[in-house]
Amino acid sequence: MRQILLEVLTDPPGRTSTAAQVMQRLVTAALTAVHVDGASVALMTAAGHAGLLVATDGPSAELENLQHSLGEGPCLDASRAGRPVLEPDLGRSGMSHWPGFTSSATAAGIAAVFAFPLQVGVIRLGVLDLYRTITGSLEPLQLAEAIDFAAAATTVLLDLQHSAPLGELHPLLAVAADGHREVHQATGMISVQAAVGLTEALLLLRARAYAAERPLLEVAKDVLNRRLTFYPEDDHDE
Question: Model-level pTM greater than 0.85?
Answer without folding.
Answer: no
